[in-house]
Structure formats: structure tokens, C-alpha cells
Predict the 3D structure of the following.
Amino acid sequence: MRAQASPEVRPRLFLATAHLATQAGWMSYDVKDDDAARRLWMIGVGLAREAEHPQSSDLVVYLLADMALQALRLHRPEEALRLVRLGHTAAVSPHPVSASTLSLLTNIEARTLAVRGDAAGCDRALDQALEQVAAIDPATAPPWTAYISNTGISGHQGAAHYTLALTSRDPRTAGRAVSLLHQAIDGFGPDYASLRAYYLPDLAGAHALAGDIDTAVALGHQAIDAVTALHSPDACDQLRVLNTTLAPLATSPGVTELRGRLATTAT
């Protein structure tokens, strides 16, 4: 990009264009056009770096967190962890990176470590992320992190505990996921229906692993209704995870019917 602009305008123009690429990347991500999302986010990284704006490093770290989250969804945890590490390196900058962006990056690191089965590393990252959340100043947070709040962070942390519980089948770990995911889902307003639909299957699965099958079945049906209303391909992946989670409980009341609906909706 070789825009003709004054030295005062140029950094803001480049940063605004990078932010636009970030938003366009998320639109592609939401419809599972992952190649387009990755290209747009890489464009955003290049523009943010070229902007030489005080918030450039923040947007670069945020974009690396986005790409790490995408790599997790694509079942590439090693790639996700490399991107997280690049994010931590990029955060060492003359211009400080906001606590909101750092908390996002660290929570995604925790989710990545959970996928790898590193419970101790996951817990350390979750604790660090909570310290960063406590330092968030909404008045100075960059615009791309406006949605990051205690509610959103609870979703990430609940998802990390749920991921650990999927492997360990530990009711206590599942119980922690239940508490955090309830906080997230109860806190999402109507503007965040897609996030609510994304986390509902996880909450149902966490209840199942914690031993509360009746609540899991009820929430599972709610999750199907929410995902169907949004036509969300991303949330359909979470329905498939829930279906697999419920497989050992197939003889429990209501589970067979729910799994039938899950299989039909997810396809």
C-alpha cells in the first residue's frame, strides 16, 4: 500500500486499514473460509507494522492471537503455540501492548496448552491471564479489544478447563468449566448471540462430564436451537464435540435422542 498522505495522517490511515483487514478476516473466519481469513490477517499484520503507530504492536499481537485461535480450530496446536510465542515476542515493543490484548493472547495460550494435555502449563497461563484482565483499563483499550471483558475471558477460561476435562474425564475440572462457561453465557447480550451459541455445546458437555446428565441434555437441545438459528458452521464443530463427549453416556435418559439431533444438525 503506497497511499499519498501527510506524515500525521499516514500512520492512522495504515492502522485503520489494518483494523479493517482484521474485521474482514473475522467475517471469513465465521463462514470457515480459513484461507481468506489467514490472508487478510497477514495483510493486517503487514499494514500494522508499516503504520509505525503507537498502537501498531498491539494490533500485531492481537492478529497473532487471532491466527493462533484459528490454528486451534483447525486442530493444529503446535502451530497455535508458535503463533502465541510470536505474539509474546511482538509484545516486547517500545509502545506498550494493552492488558486486554495480552489477556486474549495468554488465554489462547492456555487453551493451546490444554489441547496438548499440559494441565500445569494451562493453569499457569490462566492465572497470568487473570492478572492481565485485572489490569484492563476500558478508557485506553484499543478499539479491536472493545469486546474483551470478564464475560469473554470467562468463556476462554471455561473452554480451557473443558478441553482438559475432555481428556481427563475429571468431574472437578469439568465443574470449573461449568462455572466459568455459565458466567460467559449469562453475560453475553443479544449482540453476542454467535458466542453464546459457540459456548453452549461446551457448557452442555461440561455438565455431562461433571455428572449432571439432565442439565447436559437440556442445554444440548438449547445449543442445537441456537446454532440452527444462526447457521453457524463454527458452532457446528462444537456440536460434533458434544456428540462425541456424550457417546459413553448413551444409556442415560434423553442422551440417545439428543445425540440423534446433534448428528443431524452438525451435518
